[in-house]
Amino acid sequence: MHKTTSLRTFWFVFISLVSLISVSLYLHITSGDFDITVMEILRTILQIDSKPENELVLFEFRMPRMIVAALVGFGLGIAGAIIQGVSRNGLADPGILGINAGAGFAIVIFMFLFQGELFTDGWLGTMIMPIFGLVGGLLAALVIFALAWHRGTLDPQRLLLVGIAISSGFGALTLFISLKMNPSDFEAATIWLTGSIYNANWLYIVAMLPWLIILVPILMLKASVLDLLQMKDESASSLGIAINRERIILLICSIGLVSACVSVSGSIGFVGLLAPHIARRLVGVTHTRLIPICGLIGMLIVVFSDYVGKTLVAPAELPVGIVISLVGVPYFVYLMIRTKGK
Q1: Where is 149: in which H helix or E strand?
Q2: Residue 19: burial class (beta carbons within 10 Å; 0-12, 13-18, 19+)
Q3: pLDDT for 186-244, tens place per residue?
Q4: Alpha carbon distance 236, 196 (integer Å)
């Protein structure tokens, strides 16, 4: 049982996480095949005797990649907290629920049909990818909602079971489509499916940022409702909560977050599982405190994992999804064993 923490504890955890994220960003931006000092970074940003090679490395490669990693981690961490709260299940995760698979299937379809003709480095191609991801995530959600609806209500346990089945189905379809691609497109799709942000650019940031700006405040406003949804349905209804409507709103918002993140980063798993568990141990179960801390923990996980992935076996790189899975899979098994023991 997690206890409610004090406001002082919350701010201590918040500042500590911001500090750790800052250190991770520093390591990320200064390290690599081409090392850059802090003074060189400042000169380049302020355009004081900056070198062309420094501008290229910072503005075209490292800064977009860092920002995408931070935004993706933030979005996935918050989405994980919402999905675990709605389902009242600590093993729930955007990937397990089928949202990642639905968004991933739609984007692989996009890559298969249009990459050679429509997908370019311009605004059009970049903005269409997140839309495809969102449509895929919403399609998966629509199927899951239809199958999880039981006796006039959205059953949280059926939601998870149906999500696992839908995720497997979309995963099989994604594999089938990817095998139909030409070798170069198949390689790109495979890298994307493992979760990778090595090709991030500023347009990716523009494509996903509106979803975070719109959806995260809505979820924060619904934090108190999410606390009430932890009670039995009868108790929550007696307090005037429209259970089905609130669950649908929360899930649609989390689906939007996940779809936007997956569309630019590939299918990164376990962030939405790890972040809420760590956050509950640090700040308790009150969602007004839990949600922002989950976002920061997710940000730290993805940024640091991407730094490890690009430096551990340099000059080769490990996709960030693989690095996170090396920690996520054992932790997931541990959670299952602990849950079974209880």
Answers
A1: strand 149-150
A2: exposed
A3: 777 777 777 778 778 888 888 888 889 999 999 999 999 898 888 877 787 787 788 88
A4: 41
